[in-house]
Specification:
4-stranded antiparallel sheet; 3-stranded antiparallel sheet; 5 helices; single chain; 242 residues; alpha+beta; 11 strands
Amino acid sequence: MTSEILNGLMVALLALLLTAYGAQAQERLPNAVGFKVHANATVTDLETQLMWMLSDSAASGAGRYGDGRLNWDESVQWCENATFGGHSDWRLPDVTELQSIINVNRTLDEPDALAIEPVFLAQAILLEERGGIDAWPYYWSATHDAEDLMTGLFAVYVAFEDEAVYVEYPPESGQYELLFIHPAGSPSSVPKRESDWLKVSATGGLSDLGDAFAPQRSLNLARCVRNESASVVRRWASVVAP
């Protein structure tokens, strides 16, 4: 079975599983501020006129590990191959679009909460690169790093919680701990594929901060979007990630 067919089947299954949730969410949150929840497991942002899938690639068990994690190429393909909620024009959002659904206020009362608008579904997954604990995943964007337009090896992701990496500290001690490097909502850029870390490291173009699981930072989730209105302009912005 080809990967395209498999992806299509997984997305179709996700649609069936979430349709019931969509109906319940529509009933439970009929006046969700700024959003309209649909019974087909999608939600429209009334300000940006973007339609989102209520859930993400983790809910369908996408990717080689079955937990939704994908490299950048796989994320682009997963969204563009999706037929979901009666639509087939899904795509990977750019970094600005992803940041538009961040809600950091959720973390004020619940420090471990996912900083996303509460109408969206998400689940924590086991992540070795963050100490082998259940943690909120990061999301790929369609945005490339403006400092890397020549090689095209880097793309930008957005962390929906305070971003941390599992590093060796002190250096060369053999002891590892979590180091928080960016607050929730910050864009960061990493190689699009695990194999690209070797290419970049060979040229001295990237420091992994002693990160024991650096290549796994090239595996993130996909949350797909489409233009609800023809007036929406697709940005595909290039940014310099901090």
